[in-house]
Amino acid sequence: MIHEVDEVLKTLLGGGALAGSGIDVAFDAPTRDWAARRNAPTINAYLYDIREDVNRRQRGHVPVLDARDVVVKRRQPPRWFRLSYLVTAWTKQPQDEHRLLSAVLANLIPRELLPPAELPGALGALGLTVPLSVAGIQTESRSLAEIWSALGGELKPSLDLVVTAPFPAYPEYDAGPPVTEGAAVRVRTLDGVPEEAEERAHRPRQVAAARDARKAAGRRGGTGRAT
Questions:
Q1: pLDDT level of residue 209 (50, 70, 90 thresholds)
Q2: Fewer Cβ close by (within 10 Å): the C or N end of the chain?
Q3: Is residue 177 part of a domain?
Q4: Strand positions, DSSP E, the chain
């Protein structure tokens, strides 16, 4: 699932005004050694945190449909995880880096929700819309300054990008075959003797049950008056 989110972000970060510009999109940790080896303008999206969004956790099971919309399996609802990326721009001039970050913002701000049709592989197969937020208020316990300190690098202008992606839950359970015949009802008298040998088709069930009950009550009432 994470590598599929990376694939989506690579398209988003390098699209828009940056399409065809030759700007590299990398997912490496932006350490001092990595920065020293960089020899071309680059946008870096470093995945620094993965946490479950427990507010989205659901219970129960969801149906799995085949091409005929028939339930063939059941599975647990997907679990949602917040993938936090540190997005930075790397060039020789700070002004150029600022221009790149501005272009990245222009690409990401309109894309608050990613539809299933734009998601690859198993991520798109879930049929769920994936939310995306950029440069929001940071609520995690670790600050960006602490992240840069852990990377051993100097603090740089950056965008905090969060993608909340579903992760499919396993296993799947086989579902029973679909119902193809209507239910039936058999009416008996109070002493347990069947009034009729055949079973009546129950379509709808409430109508047939009410009709049979009225007929049985009428016969019992008539017998009582004769006695």
A1: low
A2: C
A3: no
A4: 24-26, 42-52, 62-65, 71-75, 79-90, 113-114, 130-134, 159-167, 172-174, 183-185, 200-202
